[in-house]
Amino acid sequence: MSVVAELRGVSVELGDDDRRVAALTRIDLQVAAGQILGVAGESGAGKSTLARTLLRLVQPQAGTVLLEGNDITAQPERRLRRLRGRMTMTFRNPLAVLNPRMTVRALLEEPLRLHARLTAPARRAAVEALAERLRLRAGELELRPAELDAGRAQLVGLGRAIATQPRLLVLDEPTCELDTVAAAEFLALLASLRDSADMAIVLIGHDITALQPVADRIAVLYLGEIVEEGPTADLLRDALHPYSQALLSAHLPADPTRRGRRIRLRGEAPTPDDRTPGCGFAPRCPIAENRCRSGAPTPNQIGTDRRVACLRVLEGSSRIPLTR
Ligand code: SF4
């Protein structure tokens, strides 16, 4: 599979000159054509910054951003504008970004007008084909955003993002406002796009289980660092980083005969301001040792296809003991 988008050693600081915080630190990430990469983490982990950095909506302070092998880290906006149709994004709350005066038809046509050289009849045909692909219902093309529920609005956002047949599609928590049925339908549509269109998809989500139905690989983000990354099935079967284990355990069925299986983390999800020396997860990690508070772990390659940033992983002692 060919790599479509890549971050190499990317670090991003946000804020003004008086107060800058590290939003992402030394991120290495790849996503290939025909692949869905899930990115999981709590609020403040840096998920949205990561999404925006992949699309070069954020300028990193260090590292390299590549699209189809081309370095776009320092490209001026004027040059990036030409690439905008090839790398697209959907937003958490599409109703906030859709023009309320436009119909769904006009909303789907707009990216084609901006980024594709098509005649008016070809554009109209492309919108009809897109509506079919999105499985829009009869008459929905003539509705305006206020007449759509969250699920249908998210579909229109997706339609706008894929109208130009991008190589990279980034979705920022697309199902967080949807009910279970609409979320399942949306993910099924995403899976069919992955299988039929030769694009790379990055799916940002709050927790691993929301990504698991469609993600081929999952990266877990904590305080702006990737703490674990690997094939979804491996990570679900045997999460190796203590934070991934805690995220997964939050979704275990409440079973009174197996008390203690849920891993309860100390304290709230931190913000970059709370960063302490050593491992960023140490203040909440149930198996932290003294060395974790001074030495920051770097990602360790596990097998051929996984990376885990924990000082205990190579010793085989990074699994949190499950007490009853
Ligand atoms: S390095 Fe230490 S504190 Fe960090 S996740 Fe591993 S065991 Fe926990």
Question: What is the secondary structure topology, with strand pairs?
Answer:
Blueprint: E1 3-16, E2 19-32, E3 36-40, H1 47-54, E4 62-67, E5 70-71, H2 77-80, E6 87-90, H3 104-115, H4 120-133, H5 150-162, E7 168-172, H6 180-196, E8 200-205, H7 208-211, E9 217-222, E10 225-231, H8 232-237, H9 242-249, E11 300-302, E12 306-308
Parallel strand pairs: 3-8, 3-9, 6-7, 7-8
Antiparallel strand pairs: 1-2, 1-4, 4-5, 9-10, 10-12, 11-12
Helix pairs in contact: 3-4, 3-5
The structure holds iron/sulfur cluster (SF4).
Question: How does this structure look, described?
Answer:
This protein is of the alpha/beta class. It folds into two domains: 3-86 and 164-308, P-loop containing nucleotide triphosphate hydrolases (Rossmann fold), CATH 3.40.50; 95-163, no CATH class. Helices cover 27% and strands 23% of the residues. It contains nine helices and twelve strands. It has helices at residues 47-54, 77-80, 104-115, 120-133, 150-162, 180-196, 208-211, 232-237, 242-249; strands spanning 3-16, 19-32, 36-40, 62-67, 70-71, 87-90, 168-172, 200-205, 217-222, 225-231, 300-302, 306-308. The protein has an eight-stranded mixed β-sheet with strand order 6-7-8-3-9-10-12-11, sandwiched between helices. A four-stranded antiparallel β-sheet has the order 2-1-4-5, with helices on one face. The protein is globular, with a radius of gyration of 21 Å. The model has no long low-confidence stretch (mean pLDDT 91). It binds iron/sulfur cluster. Residues 242, 279, 281-282, 285, 287-288, 292, 297, 310-312, 318 line the site of iron/sulfur cluster.
